Every structure is written in C-alpha cells, then in structure tokens.
C-alpha cells in the first residue's frame, strides 16, 4: 500500500517521537523511509554578505545531513529498512508538502505538539498546515514533553 514514507525531523526529541511509528509503517509495507530536514534560510540582511549567508547555510546543511545520516544508519542496521536522507530550505510546511507531492510519497508520519488555543494560533502548527495542504495520508503522533 505504501512504497515511500516521509518523516520530517527538526532535530528535536519531540519530532523524533514519530520515528518508531514511521519505521514500523516502512517495515510493514516494505517501503522506503525518507528522512527530511527543512532548513529555514537566514533572512537577507545588509550586514551579511551573500558569501557569509551561503557559508552559514552550507554548514547548517552539513550538520543536518550528519544528524539524519546517524539516524538512517541506525535504522538500516537495526531494521534493514531502506532510508533516504534529504534536506531542503524554506518554510517547513511548504517544503514538506512540496517534497511529498513531487516525490511520490504515499504516507507522511510526523509528530505534533498538540498545542491548542492561543499558543497554536500564535505559533501555528506545521503538522496542521501539512494535513490541510496535502492529499495523501498523514499519520500524526502526539508527542509528549519530557518532564525534568
């Protein structure tokens, strides 16, 4: 049923709570798992030259790929599931939707913080925007805050 499962990760423990669910779906359907990290570009500022912004983005991209690569290696080693690592730059919900629609993704698995009311209105929800913006199934995992 699913051949390509997309798991957007932002580097947080909350986002990674969707990882076992994405792996389980990929294993169940013998699907490829795609780990996506969206990098938000620095705003262009007259104080920073184009070279500085480019260098900053390249470093951020390298760190993101290393982060995703470590997760991918662990998944491949422990589960034998094929994993692809991808980074993109832009607004997270826009890039997740764009990637899913242009790369034949069959299922998106992602965490949601479960915010409601004023904080959700103020901050918005990447997960909600993805759900509203795609026509493919989205599995939302309600992430739990780690208590100190």
What share of the residues does DSSP label as strand, in percent?
A: 15-25%
Low-confidence stretches: 116-123
**Biggest pleated sheet:** 5 strands, parallel
Q: Could you spell the SSE succession in H and E letters?
A: EHHEHEHEHHE
CATH class term: Alpha Beta
Structural class, by secondary structure, is: alpha/beta
Provide the CATH superfamily: HUPs
Order of strands in the sheet with most strands: 3-2-1-4-5
Total beta strand runs: 5
Task: Indicate the mean pLDDT.
Answer: 87
For this entry, give a set of tags.
five-stranded parallel beta sheet; 47% helix; alpha/beta; 148 residues; Rossmann fold; 21% strand
Description of the structure:
- This protein has 148 residues and is of the alpha/beta class.
- It has helices at 13-16, 19-28, 50-79, 92-102, 117-123, 126-133; strands at 4-8, 32-39, 83-89, 107-112, 138-142.
- The protein has one domain (4-142): Rossmann fold (3-Layer(aba) Sandwich).
- The protein is 47% helix and 21% strand.
- A five-stranded parallel beta sheet has the order 3-2-1-4-5, with helices on both faces.
- The chain is globular, with a radius of gyration of 16 Å.
